[in-house]
Amino acid sequence: METDCIFCKIVEGKIPSRKVFEDDEVLAFHDINPLAAVHFMVIPKKHIASLSDAGPEDAAVLGKILTLAARLAREQGSPDGFRTIVNTGKIGRQDVYHLHVHIIGGPNPLPRMIAKE
Ligand code: AMP
Ligand code: ZN
Fold this sequence. Notes:
HIT family, subunit A, binds zinc ion, 117 residues
């Protein structure tokens, strides 16, 4: 755990979240500032700062996150598909440095891919 990481604090229950799914390795919770009707994130409970910091030892948990995505999206009301975004590093406009996979769905998520300010 990283003491200054807000997603580690969410994992530890020190910051509240609207939980979608949890097991021993991963947590899914709704984005506090949703960009579409369905917008949640799936994260490893282990602190991995970004995709650039993930190593071979993280392959299993990253695979689990991707294979959970469709099931959770369906359960959250996006059965016909969704967008999956992993912002990485400065160029990738990553704001929170705890690896997270955005699942963005609903009837018409992000009609045009957006660039953040
Ligand atoms: P990124 O730009 O990919 O690093 O995205 C970070 C995301 O985390 C943004 O979409 C924020 O709205 C979201 N976020 C930040 N703080 C919280 C929080 N406390 N609970 C839920 N989502 C959050
Ligand atoms: Zn963290």
